[in-house]
User: What shape does this take?
Amino acid sequence: MSTILFVFSRPPHGSINAQEGLDALLMGSAFTTCSVLFVGDGLMQLVAGQSTDDLGTKNFSLSFGALKDYGVTRIACSKPDLLARGLNKDDFLIEVESLNAAAMQAFIRNHDKVLNF
Amino acid sequence: MSTILFVFSRPPHGSINAQEGLDALLMGSAFTTCSVLFVGDGLMQLVAGQSTDDLGTKNFSLSFGALKDYGVTRIACSKPDLLARGLNKDDFLIEVESLNAAAMQAFIRNHDKVLNF
Amino acid sequence: MNFAIVVHGAPYSSEACLSALKFAKAVLASGHSINRVFFYHDGVHTANSLIAPPQDEAPVSEQWQEFGTGNNIELIACIASCLRRGILDETEADRYEKSGSNLAPGFTISGLGQLIDASINADRVVTFGV
Amino acid sequence: MNFAIVVHGAPYSSEACLSALKFAKAVLASGHSINRVFFYHDGVHTANSLIAPPQDEAPVSEQWQEFGTGNNIELIACIASCLRRGILDETEADRYEKSGSNLAPGFTISGLGQLIDASINADRVVTFGV
Amino acid sequence: MIVHTINKVSALGLCNNLIAEDDKVVLLEDGVYLGLQPLPFLVFAIRFDVDARGLGGLLAAHTESIDYSDFVRLCAEADKVCSWF
Amino acid sequence: MIVHTINKVSALGLCNNLIAEDDKVVLLEDGVYLGLQPLPFLVFAIRFDVDARGLGGLLAAHTESIDYSDFVRLCAEADKVCSWF
Assistant: This one.
């Protein structure tokens, strides 16, 4: 069975890309082995304390807490992109591996398919 | 009567923003005094020799030649953005003023309204 | 003071449509007026009557309808943008021999001249882009 | 070799929809096959039957219909993306009590599972994003 | 005085040459991420967008959170509004 | 070998750390503007997109113009395709 790596590169809330990517990941993990890599402003999806009450949109960041329960195998982010944004992993709402360039390339190589959002 | 400055910042063909911006400029020039400023990858709208025959989309760059006939007052681009792209004005299909930062700020100040595309 | 508001973003796909609505409400709440809201580019998707969003997402399109109708504010969807994107009123549906129309109540399909007219006559123009 | 193709961009608004079509045609011309084309995000606008583009612009949506029907290739539009964006078949129009439907012939509305299934079973997945 | 609105990080590159010394910048939507670093302008960020993204405690000291009524007031005080996206 | 597609200039920033030495990069749509400068990868650009933008004579020497059948062949030769947008 093909394994799938989901790559998330868009910030949350400004467009629905992030939310529709997460929907696809949750669906994917019901069918096969899936992992996820956050790159660029996609890292912003993981920032803790998101509160959309006043904005009036869905706070889908709460679903990230359930990724492990859904069976998502590895949850990782780009270390260079983390540093470039002045963030550290304590700012995130879940535990995430941070990978350097070589480790990210290996991560991609070790999956059969890549779906980008 | 309000004067309008149109600001074009998107490259052509990848999305319809550039084409719909041009449509708005042509309409605007029928009603009032209009000028246009190209910034960022919007400068790429002006590159000569665009040929969309194989792509199968509309080659709206041909309409830029008619801007003066439509009464568009001034046609200008960002000099820093021109240099950053390694382009010079000979690469363009029409004659365009290139403005430095101070001149662009004055250009915006001297119009009543700004419409960005 | 009189505002013209221009919306380039589709509901859900982009936040622009929701931001513009919040801004428009604040304009009225501040005692100013709005001469027209012009939906251009993907913004015309706001006028699609067939949108059926999930229960847990804000019904942005419906909220615009209520805002326009409730405050008697013109909501204009650009005709050229609409035709390219499949938003039709009954007249256009007939003209192009389409099976039906899908323009939501409260919206009017009209030409780009309405954008220029609104821009010229407003004191301020604010665009919500994508 | 078997390809799955994923389209995120709406016709006209984005070139992605047109690039995907050119790619799909080249896949078949090269002797490969396509197991499914999955329209997600704004890509589902391709399935809107009410699009009436100007004469001088390529009718991308119609070209997809012809491609799918002519080559017997599944064109699936994601149901969740469709509902948010106002693309409905008759079943969904009835369910949400809407005045009509606008799904173009040749397209089928179905769930996200179809994206995963196509990705797993294809030899290659290629996404055309925005 | 001109109000410049910025709704995404990449749009700063379009306008940073065009913002005059006495202009004001309103960050909204994904543009609020620009409020994390100091910028050489007078910068305001829409609070709803800041909160939605969990950035309340992360904004640079000089980035002022505002609501939509403040945004409208800034637009009314300005000579015109220029929207970058 | 992985084929990476890039369809806009800003997407290069997302993937430049993720492209391995033996990978190949296909520029399409607005991504072909990246073909104007030398890039440290094996770079191909879709000819239809290059021509539509008037870039025929402006591409960097090492950027190779290809058509869609070449693009399909590169995908078939690769282990997988990764799309950046």
